[in-house]
Amino acid sequence: MTARTYSFEFFPPKTPEGEVKLRGVRTRLAALEPDYFSVTFGAGGATREGTWSTVQEIHKAGLPVAPHISCVGSGRASIGKLLTAYREAGIRRLVALRGDAPSGTGVGGGELAFASELVEFVRAQSGDWFHIDVAAYPEYHPQARSPDEDLEHFVRKVRAGANSAITQYFYNADAYFRFCDEARARGCAVPIVPGVMPITNFAQLTRFSDACGAEIPRWIRNKLASYGDDRESIRAFGLDVVSGLCERLLAQGAPGLHIFTMNLADASLEIWRRLGLPR
């Protein structure tokens, strides 16, 4: 079996205080020796400069890092310039996404309309320099017209040159395993690493899930709602749910875990401890 990949995701801080906080979080999680940290790009490249500076700081600290890149609102020239900059800096991994337009802007897809076209462009510009991750949606992308269409989009990204995939977060392991089976049936042999969202804030989780199409199973949603403002109970229940999900995923062959940290360390560290991961 290929070695599993464990990684953590950050978003670029918006304030000096956030930068200081993230450095502390990064230091704590780096002690686990993850395979890499990823850094998000923001809708329509909204955090372009923040992504660059955060990636550079992580890279200069001697830690493996994978910036997100997006084709929404960007042309080939600007994407090519960014690829050159990352290559010259020694970055070897990217997360290639179509991306979203900023809310209410009407920004279109740019010169490259789909993530598969972005992957093709990266390969044409940079050959095999970058390990390319793409997104996968076990519960299907909210804009997909059908599950079959969504799966075909995923297959196209892999055939364009992706090395591996990271899923949107989910709490239904069966959806993940079915998606992997269906992708393999279409000839996709790349690792599909499950994305994991720790549960620490019910209102925030509900907002994110409604926006991205990730289902919160009814029993989980009702249990969380029953705790009201009891944050400790939400955190304790969330740790049980997510740790149990991760245990099942790994026991049934998932090729690793990608944890969406929300720039926080405690929940990720506790999940790691409960799983008894070797690092």
In short:
With 279 residues, the protein is an alpha/beta fold. It is 47% helix and 15% strand. Helix 4 (115-126) packs parallel to helix 5.
Task: Explain the overall architecture.
By secondary structure, the chain is α/β, with parallel strands linked by helices. It has helices at residues 16-30, 48-60, 76-89, 115-126, 147-159, 173-185, 202-212, 218-226, 231-251, 266-275; strands spanning 5-10, 36-39, 65-70, 93-97, 131-136, 164-169, 192-196, 256-260. It has 10 helices and 8 strands. It has an 8-stranded parallel β-barrel with strand order 1-2-3-4-5-6-7-8, surrounded by 4 helices. Helix 4 (115-126) packs parallel to helix 5 (147-159). The model has no long low-confidence stretch (mean pLDDT 92).
